[in-house]
What we know:
Helix content of chain B: 55-70%
Helix content of chain A: 55-70%
Strand order of the largest sheet of chain A: 1-2
Keywords (chain A): Membrane, Sensory transduction, Transmembrane, Transmembrane helix, Vision
Distance between the termini of chain B: 13 Å
GO cellular component, one term (chain A): membrane
Number of helices of chain A: 9
InterPro entries (chain A): Peripherin/rom-1 (IPR000830), Peripherin/rom-1_CS (IPR018498), Peripherin_LEL (IPR042026), Tetraspanin/Peripherin (IPR018499), Tetraspanin_EC2_sf (IPR008952)
Number of helices of chain B: 9
Low-confidence stretches of chain B: none
Region (Disordered) (chain A): 330-351
Largest interface: A-B, 29 and 30 residues
Order of helices and strands of chain B: EHHHHHHHEHH
Radius of gyration of chain A: 32 Å
Oligomer: heterodimer
Mean pLDDT of chain B: 87
Shape of chain A: elongated
Distance between the termini of chain A: 10 Å
Order of helices and strands of chain A: EHHHHHHHEHH
Largest sheet of chain B: 2 strands, antiparallel
Transmembrane segments (chain A): 21-42, 62-83, 104-125, 264-286
Strand order of the largest sheet of chain B: 1-2
Radius of gyration of chain B: 32 Å
Shape of chain B: elongated
Structural class of chain A: mainly alpha
Amino acid sequence: MAPVLPLVLPLQPRIRLAQGLWLLSWLLVLAGGLILLCSWHLLVQLRHLGTFLAPSCQFPALPQAALVAGAVALGTGLVGVGASRASLNAALYPPWRGVLGPMLVAGTAGGGGLLVIALGLALALPGSLDEALEEGLGTALAHYKDTEVPGHCQAKRLVDELQLRYHCCGRHGYKDWFGVQWVSSRYLDPSDQDVVDRIQSNVEGLYLTDGVPFSCCNPHSPRPCLQNRLSDSYAHPLFDPRQPNQNLWAQGCHEVLLEHLQDLAGTLGSMLAVTFLLQALVLLGLRYLQTALEGLGGVIDGEGETQGYLFAGGLKDMLKTAWLQGGIACRPAPEEAPPGEAPPKEDLSEA
Amino acid sequence: MALLKVKFDQKKRVKLAQGLWLMNWFSVLAGIIIFSLGLFLKIELRKRSDVMNNSESHFVPNSLIGMGVLSCVFNSLAGKICYDALDPAKYARWKPWLKPYLAICVLFNIVLFLVALCCFLLRGSLENTLGQGLKNGMKYYRDTDTPGRCFMKKTIDMLQIEFKCCGNNGFRDWFEIQWISNRYLDFSSKEVKDRIKSNVDGRYLVDGVPFSCCNPSSPRPCIQYQITNNSAHYSYDHQTEELNLWVRGCRAALLSYYSSLMNSMGVVTLLIWLFEVTITIGLRYLQTSLDRVPNPEEPESESEGWLLEKSVPETWKAFLESVKKLGKGNQVEAEGADAGQAPEAG
Lengths: 351, 346
């Protein structure tokens, strides 16, 4: 049974491997910490922007998965730091011997799996943002006037603050406001002829105007903000609708939010990829170090050459051994326990 | 009688030196913190210098920056001294410098305390510059064509949106200045002509405010024009309407922002000052205990450390004597004999 990918490791290369592993583990800790920070930032952003995403949107799953994956990567990094430190010190190594094996399995399966899932989400989810934003923003704009309806009374404030902070107006442009009644009926004068005409001329009885809320105003404009009668070119003298309109924000909130969230998801995705690479390297290095030291019987300073490897035998042999181990453990024959452990030990010490 | 005498054996001395070494490196970190606090405050003041008349005093951030740098320098030096204190040979090199160094440390601590106090006390001058600067800013709001002032409209609008304020003391300040440029007034309209004629200086004053005064929390769309005219808007009473516009004036808003900033910086600086005082006291104990080791060949022996060799009034008297001696230094040798005996007491 030949070991898989063996590597001869005399004392000096072993020491260098341990030192390099120590450095890589600290980098992994850093990367895990950065992922934690980035996903926490994205979660905070989503809490503020939650009203503008449709409730059925799965996007919040991405930062949640990344948070867990980042925590596991951080843990793996710390384990790597401790183990590589211990492998250079004969007094510190013995407690690590028993723990390292299961930790490597947990790190590969758990950590690797989580990172792969998070990466997959980072690639797949941003695509669903478009529809979610379309629906969410449409609902928010429609409820702008409902400042007294329970459940939607915050919509006006949130939309105004969104437009002020992100420098956008409407969904795709300021004309979206012309198709929505954004003035609450409570503040419409029923005795005003203009109001009555407008409502009667509309099929659904909505009061539509060619005006926009104040939050669409652009402070960079040289003239005081023009909010009303925007389609009437004679209403505001000296206002030429054909000139570049600095009066209101030109971008729509849909584009702005989409770009913003996709950028954040992209950053998170690339950090997850880098962490995945780092974690794979750290786990590989730990495995080689562990098997090399096992070959010496746990004696760190042994001058002899040993071989480090990934797996003791081929995949088939490994599965057979695992099957045998599992089978023996299930059989109710307590005196057979020591021989059950002997075959795997023989595999490990075969060098 | 020595002040606050403490006995030190070898182990205690070593622990003191090691503890001080660690504390000094933390103190270097604290110095970096003070430096960055000063830098942050300077940047914040610079950001809003347009509404501060460009005459605001940068004394507080500059002194914080200076104290931060000095703290880093002194504390890394002290760390080196504490590290060498464990080795008698290296310590002998530092011995002659320690007393003046400690005097400088005490001076540094006093100045740090004064700077911390300044953080709390200097908001009064800021209030005046803010009031002046905002008044001018609002005056130039309409001059978007005048080079040198064309950015004022954008600055004031962004300020009012960010700090949730309106005008200097309140929104009525906007009623007293012409904030709409003549360039955008339709002089063929009767209403415009009437307003300008009825004003003594020929200004176009309205009871309206810019859009940046609007409060997003208001349940109704923002009422910016004809604010004091109840009949111009349906179901509106300007006396009871509180949510329509921001109520706070920008002077109060900015002042409270900078005050809270400087107060928290003052608190942090005071805490760091306490830390520095502890380090200075520890260094003094280390110095006196190491100086009083009876036999340098036997570092294991016990020695005593203290803060002051004599009690406070006696030390003060000796200090005054040495100052007087400096004054008499030019006199004849007869006095020199007296001066020779005075240092032995000090």
